[in-house]
Amino acid sequence: MKNQIAYIDEFGNNGLDFEKEGVSTHFIVTAILIDSSKKENVEEKIETIRKTNFQTGEMKSSGLGDNDTRRLKVLKELNDIDYHIFSVVIDKRELKGEGFNYKGSFYKFLHSLVDREIFKVFPDLEVVADEHGGQEFKEGFIKYINRKHIPNLFEQAEFKLSNSKSSLIVQLADIITGTLARCYETKKLSDNISKFLETLKDKITEIKFWPPDYKPYAYDPGRDFENFNPTISDLGINLASQFLDDTKDSTDPATIDQRSFLKYLIFHFTNINPETYVSTYELINHIDQFRSTTITMHYFRSKVVAKLRDKGILISSSNKGYKLPSSSKDLYEFVNHSNSYIQPMIERLIKCRNRIKLATKNEMDILDHEEFKYLSIIKDNLP
User: Fold this and answer.
1) CA angle, 282 as apex, 281 and 288 as ends, to 5°?
2) Rounded-to-integer distance, Cα 352 and Cα 55, Å
3) How far is it, in rounded angstroms, from Cα 26 to Cα 245?
4) pLDDT tens-place string over residues 192-221
5) What's the pLDDT score for residue 257?
6) Dihedrals φ, ψ of 8, to 5°?
7) What is the C-alpha to C-alpha distance for residues 270 and 278, in angstroms, rounded to an integer?
8) Among 12, 52, 79, 361, which lies 20 to 30 A Cα-Cα from 114?
9) For 4-210, which CATH class?
10) What pLDDT digit, counting tens, does each position of 45-82 carry?
11) Are the C-beta atoms of residues 32 and 177 closer than 8 Å to each other?
């Protein structure tokens, strides 16, 4: 993705004494990604929203506080803006080792992790961050990037600081990071997490969690769903997660597209609703975010979905879209959806076969070949 600007904001601190007031359980780094050619238009739209909701003040997450109704209103208005979210969420409670008690070691770990996750996907980023607040993380991150990403013919990374009062997109980054803190920070959790993530889902490119979920993964939906089956659910997520683990270093374009597809299904399943489907349009749009060209419907079905199913990944589909299965109902819907295509094709094939046998007085049977043996078995078992 060329000509991308990432506006960085962070939430959290380096403290590890979680009983202490003000010490966060999570550290969140968020990049708001925009196309540099659309920067002016994005800023104009943000300014309109800022004036409507914050009058003369900055657009800050702290200004929304725990007023979730007001926060949801602002997020929905921001959905009209062309931007995307890439975030890294670190659970500090999983940081093991004496070294993490030292501020320097803690921030070096963060710099390496965030750099690895963001620049792996977007190697040519211009990175902008607020010059105020969170100085220890940002100043160290600037030095880290300038040292590691020396501009050359293939990589043109750049890092600069900006005043949030003059940068409306930095203010947007603050709103989004604060909202994600309401979703993942233990001491700030909202009752409206699913509503926040549902509102943001079209904007979320990816949320990377550290440490990665341990396997086997046992998914708890957190609330009752009519048809939810934990065995089917866990199998679907574990197979998808295993594929992501096995292909994390792949540079094959089709595999990268398959990974984008699965990551989005997992995000929807675990954060939005395990029982609802994601439309084909939404999935293709998500995959396109990581590509320089748009994929076709044929490519999506044959090179993404079909290839994943060939590898044993469980993907349910219906006329409503795609999802990871969470119940026997999902599996039967997939069988029924597939049958609606397969059965008419087989019936047409049998009609063709019978006509030819009749015309040749049984001298020619187009299914009487070893390579069509499985079709003969189906034919022989048709009612």
Assistant:
1) 90
2) 72
3) 23
4) 998 999 999 889 888 888 876 544 444 444
5) 95
6) -95, 140
7) 13
8) 79
9) alpha beta
10) 999 999 999 988 889 999 999 999 999 999 999 999 99
11) no
Q: pTM of this prediction?
A: 0.70
Angle, helices 68-78 vs 168-184, to 10°: value is: 130
- Residue pair 325/286 in contact (Cβ under 8 Å)? The answer is no
Q: How many other C-beta atoms are found inside a 10 Å radius of the C-beta of residue 270? A: 19
Who contacts 98 (Cβ-Cβ below 8 Å, separation ≥6)? Answer: none
Q: Is 308 exposed, middle or buried (0-12, 13-18, 19+ CB in 10 A)?
A: buried
Q: Which of 329, 261, 249, 345 is nearest to 295 (CA)?
A: 261
Q: Compute the chain's Rg from CA coordinates.
A: 25
The one-letter code for the residue type at 38 is K
Task: State both tokens at 357.
Answer: 């046998």
Q: d(Cα 51, Cα 69) in Å, to the nearest integer? A: 18
Q: How far apart are CA 126 and CA 148, in angstroms?
A: 14
For residue range 255-292, list pLDDT tens digits in order: 999 999 999 999 888 888 888 899 999 999 999 988 88
Dist. CA 203–CA 77, nearest whole Å:
12
Structure-block tokens of residue 222: 């957190």
Q: Are 162 and 171 in contact (CB under 8 A)?
A: no
Sign of CA dihedral 88, 94, 98, 101: positive
Q: Where do the domains of the chain lie?
A: 4-210, 230-326, 331-380
The amino acid at residue 80 is D
Which amino acid type is present at position 199? T
Q: In DSSP terms, which residues pair with 127 in a beta bridge?
A: 6, 159
The contacts of residue 188 (CB under 8 Å, 6+ apart) are 181, 182
Residue 31, beta-bridge partner list: 8, 86
